[in-house]
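A brief tutorial aside. Many learners find it easier to grasp structure tokens once they have seen a single protein encoded end to end. The record that follows does exactly this for Matrilin 2. Read the sequence first, then the structure, and try to relate runs of similar tokens to stretches of the chain.
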Amino acid sequence: GPWVSCWAPGCVPLETPCRGVPLDFAFVIDSSRSIRPRDYEKVKAFILDLLQFLEVGPDATRVALLQYGSVVQSEFPLNAHASRAEVERAVRAMQHLASGTMTGLALQYTMDTVFTEEQGARPAGLLIPRIAMVVTDGRPQDTVEAVAAEARRAGVQIFAIGVGRVDMKTLQAIGSQPHSEHVYLVANFSRIQTLNAVFQSKLCGEVDHCGDGKHGCEHEAVNMEDSCVCKCRDGFKLRPNGKSCKSEYRDNCFVKGTCHMVSVGNACVCKCRDGFTLGPDGKSCNKCGNAVMDLVFIIDGSKSLGPINFELVKGFVNAVVDSLDVSRNGTRVGLLQYSTKVRTEFTLGRYASAGDVKEAVSRVQYMGRGSMTGMALRHMFQTSFTAKEGARLGVRHATIVLTDGRSQDDVVEWANKAKNAGVTMYALGVGKAIEEELKQIASEPDETHVFYAENFDQMGEITNRLKSGICQGISFRPSYADPCQCDNVVMFQMQATEKMIMLTQDNILFHYKPLCQIV
């Protein structure tokens, strides 16, 4: 999105407007009869709180507000008020409409009227972000999907906030992608104030001068008021070029690119960067990216997760993928999602880079039904680790199963078959997941194969432990071997056969004969 986080030190406090980027910002407020008068006042209070995060002015952020019931009523357009105080007075003067819920009509008005130059929107060529924040408490009496999609295509970024019994699918039809950052649901109007901190991080902030990734810093990039500067980790100092770092100590433990020194008493020891594990020699660092592995994720898509938590699950998958060097000859990644059925999102042989895998994960759509974990394990065992799906012989096979509750079918049979066939099983449970069931799924010992988080927000805390566990015991890429040795000829034939199968699946080759049949 176009906004910059305000979590960094130096963020402007609430007493003064935040120095965020200029916006054309429209509040679209449900004023239907289902909203009680005292709840309507809470909505106004929420708007007033959010205004504290905006620097309002003709050359800063312009604010418009409309409310809707059976009709749409514009309270003020983008060019009506030149200061935050003026906007606040207009918000306090709003009167409850107490009629129907024509959300689609309000979205149409927002796109056709609010965000026009006649109403104060700045020309599209200036690239001022156009933001619409929709607050609603019920099911629309008209359709919203088409008009919301049209508004998003026209460049309007939409935040959808639901209160009470709003259908999540309706909010997702309204809000922009990713839904985890644009769609919010709270239990009641008293809870809407809990979203203040969420939107403070979006509306208040400094310009991120390091955000384009062109800083070239070897270690860390630090965002300053008017520039991006490089910083070295402890034990290093910045070289004259202002970008690379050199050790402040003389030692024999520094290995460029992986290990850096940390001071312990009068000695120094090697410490590896995130994603690396210190080798037995105490100097070298191994990364899962140097490993050869076929890894299949099995993620729970049951309705108990909810769409927002499902986005966190996808983020967890991508965090693990970040520690891997995904390639044809290194690590291959596949993904299954399950609910009352199992869906192969992509096979082991489908993608050859981490970027492609992460993009595919981001496109995965939430299933939202039952929880047939045993069925997913069966599919993994019978299908996922086959040559047709891109699995390799002689390579470690591993599976990460993520679930948030008890399975509706038996997990023991197919988990045991997979483990007996040499598949290393990791089980990650969240919330109401059953510990005994996780142990039935996972390989032994439990300490390194079973993981649990009380809620989805805590998943990040165990991601590093899981990544470290996956790295242990993986075979790393061998050094160059004599291609004329018999064993290596056989290995070449196996690899060539796998490649031809993948080409056939991509409709590049229509007929092929396995190498073992070629005389």
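Self-check: The chain has a mean pLDDT of 81. If you spotted this yourself, you are ready for the next section.
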